[in-house]
Amino acid sequence: MTQQVLNATVAPLPPGETLTPAAQPRSKLPLASLMLTPSVAVLFLWMLVPLLMTLYFSAIRYNLLNPDQTGFVGIDNYRYLLEDPAFWPAVGHTLTLIGSVLGISVVGGLLLGVLFDQPFAGRGIARLLVIAPFFVMPTVSALIWKNMILHPVYGLWANIFRAIGLQPIDWLAQYPMWSVIVIVSWQWLPFAFLILLTALQSLDQEQKEAAQLDGAGPIRIFVYITLPHLSRAIAVVVMIETIFLLSIFAEIFTSTAGGPGTETTTLTWLIYSIGLQQFDIGIASAGGVIAVVLANVVSFFLVRMLSKNLKGEYEK
Amino acid sequence: MNEKAPWWVGILGWGTAFVIFLPILIIAITAFKTEQDAYSLSLLFKPTLQSFNEVFERSHYLGFVSNSVYVSLGSTIASLALAVPAAYSLAFFPGKRAQKILLWMLSTKMMPAVGVLIPIYLLAKTTLLLDSITGLIIIYTLINLPIAVWMAFTYFNEVPKEILEAARIDGANAWQEMLHLLLPTALPGLASTALLLVIFSWNEAFWSLNLSSVNAAPLTVFIASYSNPEGLFWAKLSAASLLAIAPILVLGWLAQKQLVRGMTFGAVK
Predict the structure, then answer these.
(1) What's the pLDDT tens digit per position in A172-193?
(2) Do the domain assignments include residue A205?
(3) Residues of B with CB below 8 A from A230's CB?
(4) Is A32 helix (H, G, I), strand (E, B) or coil?
(5) What is the ipTM of this complex?
(6) Which of A160, A172, A271, A249 lies closest to B231, judged by CA?
(7) Quick one: angle between helices B7-30 and A123-131, nearest 10?
(8) pLDDT tens-digit profile of B20-39?
């Protein structure tokens, strides 16, 4: 499964050619495998051991607060979790968050990318300003937004609203999910922008000029030439952001702590609160397994969608 | 096609850049205000370093900074120490499975962190690595290792074949080849790999929030502690945040090209 994701990600290899054109292999030295083994070994352990532990914990009764209750419980942890009234909303919140941030960052990144592909004065510096939020640590961005921009009394928005005679809004209390989406998008839009701009700038100008000579307008050029050229970059942005967004934690930890109520409780937050606040290891592990499955389902659909795109590109 | 864009494009570009950068600009300005001035958005104020002084005096700020430095540098060095030989081996002595191994390494990045949160927390607790710098270094090394291998691999791959062949004809052995030829040629690439790893570890906040609290807490965790009402001391919050993000912001600006390469695994150049 993940293999498929990667094959799509690392796609630009013509069939029959390996990744390693740099040197003709000499006879394989023991030294070479000796150098490779440590990395492979630690990653193998890192991949396998925790995952097996999660699977094992998810099938036993294991609560740090009640250490004497033990034993195999089969799928009871899963059943309990699925019946938790917070579970399905949490899945919903996770998908809303991922979907909205992806939408905002891809569409916004495209628009910004096209804008910054134009040769305006000082765009190199303006570009540095646009990508800056990506390098701000997540807890800092959540706090800036929470305390200085969205704050109902002192925040920037409250000031703007008062200045135009409107009642300030308590964003984090009234629209908590949207607030989190805005905070996370602020960090990931610059990433999408940077990737898409890089891809845009590698577009062959002659192709565009030829289309122009044939009388195609800018919109047709964008739809028929630019967008297809960007499909791989968009695919990469969607996949990478999905994987990171599924584990969004620090922004919620710092801004809303899953609340008010459970309105911004994502799957990640739910697992954290069951496991590390209520110390029910068994049920939290069941949640962990579900998160891994969800990650794979999401990437499976993505890959199918994308591999079609990519295939089209290769057959040309 | 290459003439300058119309004036309104420039306005639009700079306008969007300003809006996106505004939150950072706000803390950069507020950090130099007194607490009394902080709540007004006015630009007319007397710059002061008072908030910076208070941040240094009141919290163990330097302790958090040094934790961040240890963890970032430690994990970067460890990742490179593991990744460079691996990438060298994959690039210059590729076995049949080299490509599969590379892809598999990247696939470990596809696992959501929360899926293994519980076992890692418990493992850290039983091995006394919870809230320890060593524990964070181990985790960061593992999550950054695939990116490190991949980037080092792509840089090694760009070393011209002819040089290598010449050296081999002259009878250089593998070690000499690596020390005298490859490392110098690939050094700029490895430097930017290191840069990227430092940025990622410095900003990492999932594992640091979950695995550290007092002793090993890096800046990400310290800043999160401002989410209580203390965070309304804007000038101090801004000063602490600005110090935490400024060095990495500069590194990030320097590394923007490598970032694209490192995070897309070479699929976008």
Answers:
(1) 888 999 999 999 999 999 999 9
(2) yes
(3) none
(4) helix
(5) 0.86
(6) A172
(7) 50
(8) 999 999 999 888 888 777 77
DSSP letter for A62, please. Answer: -
Whether B185 has its CB under 8 Å from any CB of chain A: the answer is no
Quick check: helix, strand or coil at residue A232?
A: helix
DSSP 3-state of B69: helix
How many folded domains does chain A comprise?
1
Residue B182: strand pairing partners: none
Residue in chain B closest to A7 (alpha carbons) equals B103
> Containing domain of residue A149, as a range?
76-315
Contact status of B209 with chain A (Cβ, < 8 Å): yes
Residues in B 42-81 with any Cβ partner in A closer than 8 A: none
* Tally of residues, chain A: 316
Residues in chain B: 269
Nearest to A64 by CA among A285, A255, A215: A285
A127 found inside a domain:
yes
Which residue among B24, B41, B206 places its CB closest to the CB of A132?
A: B24
Tens digits of residue pLDDT in A198-231: 988 888 778 878 888 888 888 888 888 888 888 8
Nearest by CB to residue B227, choosing from A22, A32, A254, is A254
Q: Which residues of A touch B259 (CB under 8 A)?
A: 194
For domain B60-224, which architecture applies?
Orthogonal Bundle (1.10)
Q: Tell me how far apart the alpha carbons of residues A193 and A116 are, in angstroms, rounded to a whole number.
A: 9
CA distances from A75 to A107, A243, A270, A283 (A): 41, 27, 19, 10
The CATH number that applies at residue A110 is 1.10.3720.10
Structure tokens at B228: 């209580």
> What separation in angstroms does the CA of A169 have from each of A155, A181, A215, B42?
10, 17, 50, 22
